[in-house]
Amino acid sequence: MEQNRSPIALGTESVWRLLLQYAIPSVIAMTASSLYNIIDSIFIGQGVGPLAISGLAITFPLMNLSAAFGTLVGVGGATLMSLRLGQKDYSSANQILGNSFVLNILFGLIYTVIVLLFLNPILYFFGASSETIPYAREYMVVISLGNFITHLYFGQNAMLRATGDPKKSMYLTIGSVIINIIFAPLFIYGFKWGIRGAALATIIAQASMLIVQIKIFSNKKSFIHLQKGIFKLKRKIVVDSLSIGMAPFLMNAVSCVIVILINQGLIRYGGDFHVGAYGIINRFAFLFVMIIMGLNQGMQPIAGYNYGAKQTDRVNKVLKYTVLLATGVGTLGFLISEFFPHAVASIFTTDQTLIKLAVPGLQIVFLFYPIIGFQMVTSNFFQSIGQPKKAIFMSLSRQLIFLLPGLLILPQYFGVNGIWYSLPVADLLSSIIAVYMLTTQYRKSTIKL
Amino acid sequence: MDQKYIINIGRQLGSGGRQIGEKLASKLGISFYDKELIQIASQESGLGKEFFEKFDESNSHSIFGGLFGLRGTFTDEIYSNSYLNNETLFRIQSDVIRKLAEQESCIFVGRCADYVLKDYPRCLNVFITANIDDRIKRVAEKEHMPENKAKDLIEKTDKKRSGYYNYYSNKVWGAAESYHLCINSSLLGIEGTVTFILQLVEKKFSVSAK
Q1: Residue A146 burial (CB < 10 Å; 0-12/13-18/19+)?
Q2: I need a surface site. Which of A22, A296, A424, B79 has the fewest CB within 10 A?
């Protein structure tokens, strides 16, 4: 089979250098994002109390859901924006900017109304108890009211990337983290506003970055800027955006459901402090997962292009290197959690009961983290080479297919530890599937050659 | 004939659009691009032909089609990074169309060429239909299939093409607003339609056919 020689850098430059070049900005942005969540949790855990962290953990699914709606609008808008910019169709591109703005506000407000109207029943359903619900309520009321700001902020960030300004969006992400770090301790320790202070700091950080974004998009000199007439909703743009965004939305909704089940299980078989422990574990694990996602984003264009250009040696290389890096990240998480769980938990709280519950949780949940790097990269690999169905299946295998039955069955035999066990079990089984799918893929392509 | 001009032909399956395009091209002495675009796009980009063929003129974005036409990762971070997604392939193909249009006068069939070249002043956008019976007959003969199968193929292809066009361009496939001229080839027959369009081309672009 002839190998097409391409002039483009993706096909010719050193794979290592390309991977680092593409991955590093993503990794930085992802790390900043997850650090933000961790720092929030630290301030709440240390500054307010152990029950506050439990209250916070109860709100995770609601925040996931909000992010899901944001993605529903954002992915579609960004995709359409790229499409129109590629055709230099600036009038359509501006309309997409405006429509996306309006949709973000619209979905943001709908969410706010529904959540605030049914806040108590929702929180109880998510696993709150009479002890934790005051914290969860305090946090959620502020977050819900500011939800449209959150949507706009993330949506505009996506637009910045789509209009070819990924650096700016990265700086904005970092900026929001910094502002949050400044205000959260001020509000919590200084003004003694408790968990409400943490929520307020988050919203203020996003609002300040939103102002910067609006300023950027108000520059009349650039092709794409906010102007009159672009805010009228056009049926075609709305329908196209939502169809494109439906898939990521559903994936987000799935992870939301899973967190609800976890919290419900923890409350049923354990108690509030178990929910708090999950809050700590989830936030810490998220850091490593996000970094691996950043690596995946770096791999995508390299793998995709070279697969299309039939340069299989380069495809194999980039897959290998990314798996290597991701495994390193996962293993780091594993080592820290297995050997220093007490230290990790102590960062988030001083409460001994909470720490005592978080320690075994950390050790169990991180058990197979050395191999989830492989699983996540392989899943994303299939997406990069244009086989999204397999990618979805693999993602679901780790996040739903094995996890769901585990969460329902294991606690009946192992009590609350069953909830912890179901996570590494899902990790292991989904990794086995990943091995199978990857070897099948390679067997198929060697036969073709 | 110093100034370049472009003719973009949108067509229903079985309307004879391709034939008409080919005859026009030969009479005017200019290049003709239909499926040939795929080969050129593949060469220019280095990506395999099959990727362009799979995405060619098909409907990629129904609500549930979107489920399996994922681009980017399924996280809050929206990154259209994959090279093999439909939008990138479309952009590569459009770049090819623009490049060819810069070089010489030509005729493009389908592939939203009229939208891609919307900023080019000397473009004639034509949409060719035909009576359904003529379409069925033509497709049945060309594809060597019975007429009822031909009818199914026509319906399916119309849906695919309109989905493709409506998504990538900002216009509506087959609607009079989207084109300069819509003509039913059953009216004058293939040769008659070619002559008719030729007259329009000669008038608009001040050129003469051989």
Answers
A1: buried
A2: A424
- The string of DSSP codes covering A208-223 is HHHHHHHHHHT-TTSS
Which structure tokens are listed for A28? Answer: 């930085």
Confirm whether the ipTM is greater than 0.90. Answer: no
Q: Distance (Å, rounded) from C-alpha A416 to C-alpha A127?
A: 14
Inter-chain CB proximity B48 and A309 less than 8 Å: yes
d(CA A70, CA A415): 36
Return contacts of A382-385, CB within 8 angstroms, 24+ apart: A382/A437, A382/A441, A383/A300, A383/B70, A383/B73, A383/B82, A384/A299, A384/A300, A384/A301, A384/A303, A384/A304, A384/A307, A384/B81, A384/B82, A384/B83, A384/B84, A385/A303, A385/A304, A385/A307, A385/A315, A385/B84
Q: Which residues of A touch B96 (CB under 8 A)?
A: none
Chain A within 8 Å of B82 (Cβ-Cβ)?
A: yes
d(CA A112, CA B128): 50
> Partners of B128 in the beta sheet?
B11, B183
| Interface residue B83 vs chain A (CB under 8 A) | yes
Q: What is the overall mean pLDDT for chain A?
A: 89
- pTM, entire model: 0.87
- Chain A residue with CA closest to B163: the answer is A240
Q: Could you give the CA distance from residue A146 to residue B134 in angstroms, rounded to a whole number? A: 61
Token pair, residue A287, equals 């850091």
Residues in B closer than 8 angstroms to A5, CB to CB, are: 46
Which of A293, A308, A310 is the closest to B75 by Cβ? A293
Written as one letter, the residue type at A290 is M
Q: How far is B123 from chain A (nearest CA, A)?
A: 16
Burial per residue of A339-357, b for 16 or more beta-carbon CB atoms within 10 angstroms, e otherwise: eebeebbbebbebeebbeb
Q: Minimal Cα–Cα distance from A11 to chain B, Å?
A: 9
Rounded Cα distance between A396 and A402, Å, is: 8
- In this prediction, residue B61 carries a pLDDT of 57
d(CA B77, CA A172): 13
Q: What is the pLDDT of residues A272-318, one digit of tens each?
A: 999 999 999 999 999 999 999 999 988 988 998 899 888 889 999 99
Assess contact for A383 and A247: CB atoms under 8 A: no
CA distance A174 to chain B (A): 14
CB neighbourhood size of A13 (10 A): 13
Instruction: Identify the bridge partners of residue B10 per DSSP, sorted by sequence position.
Output: B127
Instruction: Please name the member of A26, A89, A246 whose beta carbon is closest to the beta carbon of B63.
Output: A246
In the block, residue with structure tokens 């003004």:
A191
